[in-house]
Every structure is written in structure tokens, then in C-alpha cells.
## 1
Amino acid sequence: MAKIADGGEVMNWITVVGLEIHAQMATQTKMFCACRREAGAEANLHICPVCVGWPGALPVLQSEAVRCAIRAALCLGCEIQELSRFDRKNYFYPDLPKGYQISQFYKPYALGGGIPFIRDDQSAATLPLVRIHMEEDAGKSSHESDGTSRIDLNRCSSPLLEIVTEPMMMSSTEAASCVRSVRNLLRWVDVCDGDMEKGNLRCDVNVSVMPEGAKEYGTRTELKNLNSFVSIERSIVVESARQIELLAAGGTIRQETRLWDQDKEITESMRGKEDSPDYRYFPEPDLPAISISNAEIQTQRESLPEMPEVRELRWLEEYKFQEREIVPLMARRANGDFLESMVSEGVAPTDASNWFRGEILRYLNERSEKIESFPVSTKSMARLILATKEDLFSVGRAKSLLQEALEAESSLDHLIDQAGSQVQDEGELAGWVDQVLSENPEAVTKIQAGDEKPMGFLMGQVMRLSSGQAHPRKVQELIKDRLAN
Ligand code: ADP
Ligand code: ZN
Ligand code: MG
């Protein structure tokens, strides 16, 4: 809320935001052909007559995209439509060789639902959705500094979801929190990798302002293609300030599309409503209507992983975790899965959490890696942790064994075997120690006179006698013990 003096009287302005979020679905193939959907491949490698729209080539809806779309709708609480349809959105652009995008305009596959998010005052809220529809992506143009432009059609026909929200009064940070929530949910159910830098999740933000107590929302402007949380937040702050200033000075807002310039921190007019393109939507004649059966919805519902709020509650109640330790564990579903897997190997949840947030996260953070590439299996981790519980070795020793395994890329199991097979039996150890002490009276005398130096020599003798089997710390304790008497 911003305050501005209006003819001597202070007026509170409220910002209203509506979002259009585009998420690229993480499918193997494109939406209407079997070409691979692969980011970062050599330009124009994954294309065929269908995705570049040769005349006469016919699209075939790939069922994997529909399954993905159903999962997205389920995790956002939408009503999935039994019957939906594709439409053509016609426009010209160099990266759209077909001259139209296949989208859903008249009959989207999902209606309603909402995005759970956290308000600035920490209360829970939901941003209602209007709809989600499926559509295909366009290609990519890049403009080089020497003036040439290049076109890469690999992205043509990659499957997208467009998630459209209702407008709602909210701050810039709350809007960013909504987008973060969508990204986390879509990642959680493996629908979208959520990589905003690569453009796999992008967002148009609609912004309007109104004086407090107004009955109707103000005229909105649309900020296109924001691809980071910072630009979402900053562009809303800057754009609502621009609108407030204009209105307070007696001006009016033009409904238009604006571009965010993140270096200059300004929004610039791109086109007004009057000159916005007429897409001449019409039903796609080459694709039949889509019917999504209850059975299919049920199958997808059953395949969904445990959702974050359910997992969180279970951890709080069953594992007695603290709120603060849950945050890093919930950051990615795979983190929690790794923890759960250690627990199912018999590790106590608290130990699993401590080891994960300590040793494992430190290793991953130092290398900016994800848990999927952690080189030690959950089974070996569990063996290591359980060994400390059975007093095979100390927690400190366990940590250095893990360190050794990670640094030398040697097998942790092998190191555990070695460390665990050390003889700890007091009687057996005492036998070796007493023999070594009686065979080395000079060393004993020196130590008893306060010279610690021969200690290492005696240790070495015991280790040799035991063929490396004696537990070093226990041996040391035992020698000290014997010589103290
Ligand atoms: P269009 O197709 O022209 O983009 P829509 O009716 O689909 O129009 O609305 C697009 C977006 O604009 C939606 O996300 C909606 O929430 C948002 N929106 C609509 N009215 C307002 C408003 N007064 N202030 C902010 N956002 C708005
Ligand atoms: Zn293709
Ligand atoms: Mg729009």
C-alpha cells in the first residue's frame, strides 16, 4: 500500500496483481510429434515436418503431455474438464514458421483451483485461478551483436501450460511468493523443472492500482515475460508507483502491454490494447477434442507423490522435527526422499535429519550440486550412521570416514568394513598391550618419567602385533591406563 498526498488529503493506494504463468512441461517429446524436447541441443536438431508446420503435416497429441497437465491441475486443485479442445492462435513471427500456435482458447482443460501462498504478515492465503490451458511453445530467436539474428526451432511445439489467475490485492513480494509456490508445486510433481533462467518458467504480470475503499479495480497494464523473482518484484513496485503518480496527478492509465527494463528499472510501453494483435482464434481442425476420463484422472492422482503440506505435517507429528529443520529438507522433494530412504533403512529420523543438514548439505552446497548426484547411497549412509549407534566407532570417526569416501571417491562401505572390523574386545587388546609393554621396558620408563615421545612407538608395536586389527583409540587409552598405575 502506498500513500500519496492528494490535494492535501493523504490517500492510500492498493496494488492489484493478476498472473499468467507459462510453464514448460518436462516431457520426453514435444506436444504433437515425437521429436525430442531437449533444451540446449544443437540448434534446429530436434525438428520435423509437424513441429515446423509443413503444409499437410498432421499433429498427434502426445499422451505424456496430457498426463503431465493433469498432474499440474491436480496439485493446483483445478476442476479437470471431461471435454476440452485445441484452437489456433494465428500470428506471424520469424520463430513461428507455422504462422499459428496450437492453444486452448474456448475450452481449456482445467478451470478454477488456486495457488497457496504466504502473505507478508505470514498468514496463509490462496490466489484463485481462472484456468489452466495447454499450448505449444514457439521457437527462439537470438540477436547477435553484429546485427545478425538467428532462429532455433528446437523449442517449436514444446508443451506448455499457461496458468491464469484472478486479479487480487497483493504486494510485489506476495506476487513473487505466488510464482515461487507454483514453481515449487510443479517441480514437486515432476511437471516442470522450474528453471526461470532458461525460460522454462516465465510470467506475465498484470498490475493495476486503486484508492483504498474503491469498488472497482483500476485499469491494468501487462508486463511481459518476466523471468526472475527479482524482476517480478521490482517491476510491480516500479509499475504501481508509476500508475499511482499518474493517477494522483489527475491522469489516466492506458490499458497496454509494457516491457520491463531491468537495468534501467523502468517499464516502457510496447503496445496499447487498440494495436494488440487479433489472433483470430478458431478451433484446430486437425485435432479431435480431448476427453479426459475419470479413470485417467484417478491414475494420475494415485501416481502423485506425497504433497509438501502432508509431508510437513507428518514430519512435525511423527518425526517431531522442528519447523526450522524442515526448511532445507523441504526445499526439493528429492531431499526429503533421501531422508525417508535413510529412515526406512533403520536410521532414527533425528539422526537422518542431522546428517542430511550437516554433512550431506555441506557437501552439496560446496559444489552447488543436487542430492541426485550425491555419490553415496542411502543404504551406505544408513550403515555408517547405524555403526555409530552400535558403538563400532564414534560419530567423529564416522564423519571422517564419510569425508574420506567423498574426497577419495572410494567406497564408503569398504571404509566402514575396515573401521568396523577393528578389534575392540578389552581382553584381546590387553593381551597385545601387555606383551608390548613388557618387551619395551625402556620406553615404559621414559613415559613414566614424563617423556611422551615413545607413545607413538608403543602404539605402532601394538598395531603391528595385532596386524592392524586393534582399535587405535582404545589401544591408546589402554596404554595410558596401564602406565598410570
Ligand atoms: P487478456 O486475455 O487480455 O490478457 P484476461 O481477462 O485473460 O485478459 O486477463 C489477463 C490477466 O489480467 C489475468 O491474470 C487477470 O488476473 C489480470 N487482470 C485482470 N484485471 C486486472 C486488474 N484490474 N488488475 C490487475 N490484473 C488484472
Ligand atoms: Zn517434430
Ligand atoms: Mg494477457
## 2
Amino acid sequence: MIIAIDGPAGSGKSTVAKLVAKKLGFSYIDTGAMYRAVAYKVIKENIPLERLPEILENLDLKLLDTNEGVKVILDGEDITDKIRTEQIGKKASQIAKIPEVRKKLVQLQRKLGLKAKNAVLEGRDIGTVVFPDAQLKIFLTASAKERARRRYNQLREKGLKISYDEILKAVIERDKTDMERKESPLKPAEDAVIIDTTNKTIDEVVQMIINIAKERKLT
Ligand code: DC
């Protein structure tokens, strides 16, 4: 069984998807981490975009389930924490516009989902493209201001000095790139349940999703 959780940056997808997967005993697959991993490689090795097809051909990317959560391993290196920066997020959004990148990563995501049998996949196009037959599709939203506030608090907690206005600008820009791209733009699937998380706690959202899964007799 596949549960698809899509939505824009800062909608709470990752936290919610991880908790839903844990509660149901499903695997958790973070597809954004895959786009981030490719972006990391492009930046680190200064790879020109015309070389991307060749890089993708030989991509050595693994998502490892460990006691400390899922680890992202690229070319044997643990890059789990290194890919969580604004710079990588922005680059990931840019390279995610390229059809060859999407083709390769979607293929990998389908393989991982099918191998896991029961999985929660989190991303932008899971319900529309990766698993259009997913048994449950959730689309999380929240106002841009609320999403920027959440990101601001996260970064401040990490000790980073960045202004709220800068983050709000970055959130709006990323929404625009993700929603306006030609290839698999960010949008809810027609049969997705849309949940606005603006005034809800993480636990409330998780419980709503579990309840829908139960109502539909998916658990
Ligand atoms: O969820 P995230 O912030 O880690 O994702 C980073 C970028 O990757 C996002 O801005 C767009 C892209 N992405 C995508 O195009 N499709 C997905 N299924 C997941 C992420």
C-alpha cells in the first residue's frame, strides 16, 4: 500500500510523513532528499548541467533505514545533514525542472516504493505522477507566511542568523519554481485530501491522516 503526501516547502510534510509511517509500520521515503542529493553533487563537484545525464546514469544514491532514521548516502558518503540547507533546497528546485532528472528519480522512487510494499512517500508529485494509483493521497498546505515562520524558527534553533523576510522571499520563490514548471508541477491530485496545516499541530494532522486511512480500511 502506498500513501502519498505532497505539498509545498514548509507545509510540514516531512515531519508528518515520518510520524504516519512510524505509526502504521510503513517505510518512509523522502523523495525531496533525492533531488537534494543530486543538487549537492552538482554544487560540490561543480558539474555543468549538460553533464547531468551522464551523472544520473551512474548515480550511486541510497536511502538507508537505520535506528537513527533514514540516512541519505551518495557515493558512499553520508550526506543526510549536509543537504538540509537553503542553498541546496534552491538548487534542488532548479534541477527538478529538468525532465531527465525527474525521469531517473521517479524510476528510483517507484522501485523503492514497490520494494517496500507498504510505504509513505513524501514529495511534490507522488499522487500525480510517481504513484497515481496510491491508495491514499494527502496534499498538505499552509500559508506562505506560516511556512516561512516555521522555517525561520528551525533555522534559528540551529543557530543560523537569517532574517524572516529573506526566508519568506525564498519560500515564495520556491513555490513559484515548483508550481510553474512544465514537468510534473506541484499541484494536488484530483483525488487528494487537502489539509491546511496553518492552525493545526503536527499531532492533529498525523491523527487526521491515520483516521482517513482507518475509515478507508487501509490499516
Ligand atoms: O521537499 P524538499 O524541500 O526537500 O524538496 C526539495 C526540492 O526538490 C523541491 O523544491 C522541489 C524538488 N522536488 C520535486 O520536484 N519533486 C519531489 N517529488 C520532491 C522534491
